Amino acid sequence: MDALAAEVSARGGRVAGRFVQRRGISGGKKGGAPGGKANMDRPYSSRTLMSTGKVREMAEARMRTHARVIVFFNELTDRQRAVLPEIIGCPVLSRSDLQAAQDSVPRPPATGLANPPHHPDRC
C-alpha cells in the first residue's frame, strides 16, 4: 500500500485514507462458529470487492475528506466499476488504471524546460 500511496502522490494526489479488508483473522466465535477463517476460500464480493461495512466506511471517509477519487490496489471488474461509484459517490480507479494513465502522459522533452501537467484534483 505504501507503493500505491507513492504513485498517487507522484501524480499530484493526496492520500486521505487507507482501507484494508481483512479476512480470516477472527478465530472461533462463541458457540464454536469458525469465524472469518472459514471464509478464506470464498471470493471477494463480486459486486463491491469489499464487505458492505467496509464500503460504507470508505463512503463516509470520502465525504469527510472531500476526496474526488478512490484508488483500489486490486483490479476492478466492470460490475465493480459501475456499482462502487454509486455507493461511494465518486469515481473509482485501480492501481493498473494509474499505471496506464502514467504511460499515456506525454513526457517533457529531455532538453526542454516544460513541466509535466499537474493535476491537483486527482488523488
Task: Give a brief description.
Residues 21-45, 98-123 are annotated as: Disordered. The chain has helices at 2-10, 52-65, 78-88, 95-104, and strands spanning 70-72, 92-94. By secondary structure, it is mostly helical.
**How large is the share of residues in beta strands?**
under 5%
Note the run of SSEs as H and E: HHEHEH
List how many beta strands DSSP finds.
2
What is the residue-mean pLDDT, rounded to a whole number? 75
Domain GTPase HflX N-terminal: 44-98
Protein name: GTPase HflX N-terminal domain-containing protein
Pfam family, one: GTP-bdg_N
Region (Disordered): 21-45, 98-123
Can you walk me through this structure?
This protein has 123 residues and is mostly helical. It has a domain at 1-12 and 66-107 and 118-123. Helices cover 36% and strands 5% of the residues. The chain is built from 4 helices and 2 strands. The protein has helices at 2-10, 52-65, 78-88, 95-104; strands spanning 70-72, 92-94. The protein has a two-stranded parallel ribbon. Helix 3 (78-88) links the parallel strand 1 (70-72) and strand 2. The longest helix is centred in the middle third of the chain and has 14 residues, at 52-65. It is globular and about 40 Å long.
Give short descriptive properties of this protein.
123 residues; mainly alpha; two-stranded parallel ribbon; 2 strands; GTPase_HflX_N; GTPase HflX N-terminal domain-containing protein
